Amino acid sequence: MPSTEHPNKVRVLAVDDDADILDTYRAILEPRGIVFTAAETLDEGLRLAATRPFDVCLLDRNIGHDLGTDAVPGIKEHAPGLRIIMATANRDTEAAMEALRLGIHDYLVKPFSPEQLRIAVARQAEARQLSTRVEVLEQQVASTPSDDLDSESPAMREAIAVARRVAGTGANVLILGESGTGKNVMARAIHRWSQRADANFVTVNCPSLNADLLENELFGHRKGAFSGAIDSTDGRVAQADGGSLFMDEIGEFPLSLQPKLLRFIQDKEYERVGDPVSRQADVRLIAATNRDLKRMSEGGEFRQDLYYRLDVVSLVLPSLRDRREDIVPLARGFVQRFAGEYGCPARSLSDAAERALLAYPWPGNVRELQNVIERAVILCADEKLDAGHMNIDASSGMPAADGNATGTSAAVGGEVSLEQLERAHIEAVLARCATLDAAAQTLGIDASTLYRKRKSYGLS
After folding, report:
1. What pLDDT, on a 0 to 100 scale, did the predictor assign at position 157?
2. Are strands 269-270 and 279-280 parallel, antiparallel or unpaired?
3. CATH fold for the domain made of 150-318
4. Whether pTM exceeds 0.85
């Protein structure tokens, strides 16, 4: 089993055939809180780089009868994100340029001072962390403000209290609830409240890809693993190392791929596609679904052992109709947010608008409320949103069909595009169906296609 003792510390691998130099590196770096690992041969260094997560590699230019530069392609292949610092007694400028051309990130000439070493390691560790964060920037930017978790509902408050307690434990969490109840928001909050908050929060959208592409997305691949794999890449698991991995809609995770996910959860080990070498990552898993995983596991649709690994602690998020005291406060918060984002004049809700919101059953939950308010803010030319801007029909339990191209339902044959009509229909079906799978069956498409359409139309 891999160590999970230092999930957020800088990890340095040093490869040198001189044990005294390795001891010196250790004495300089470990007092700074750096996790240090030594290797006295190139083969051992390559094995460690391929199987354990490191941020920086200190690589000697001459290791016995071998050249450290000979190991660079192997390091790049097995650990593409690892930052390499070459240490050498050679002051030859051409040799330094050759090392940099090979992809070595820095060059230290012996003898160098402890401070020079510390600065070089710190610089490359920072570059490594920045590179990893850039890869998940889109997901980090998409983080929903924590105000969405403010609640007057006893059921929601209890869920939040349990989430806060479990956040610091490192246990796997399974978040349950209907579509649109805020499972993604809760997952981000658990990460934010945990000791891993300074590391990455990475999302895997389970229904978005087929099994082969999802395996590559999750675990990465080795150069040449398949046609077009011109470089080795890390997957979401490697990006989440030290942080949290959120598996959205885990009920859609392919049955054929579940053994590999189970093995990773149990042993923290995995293989990239096309790579026989086992790798390690320290990841806290948070999963979410609107499906009944227990029933699915009993019926053979989901592995029972995987279900029990995921369901260490489960949180059930109540539907919006079961937390009606939160409807108006949430709506007011959305008004302020979208008015600021779009530079619109709307700033508040009229009494009639609030009564309309309270009378509507919200089958699409918080996500539907957010979409309704966003649309209303964009279309309203006044400072106060009225009931007419809401475009909802409380008596039918469905969005109103007012014929506007920007409404959630447009009349067939009206002056609307096919894209607008498709968006409106998908939104209505998602609001009515309890699960993504049920909505996909109603629409006559597979779940991955529905997921992509939902994303493209901004319905999630």
Report:
1. 93
2. antiparallel
3. Rossmann fold (3.40.50)
4. no
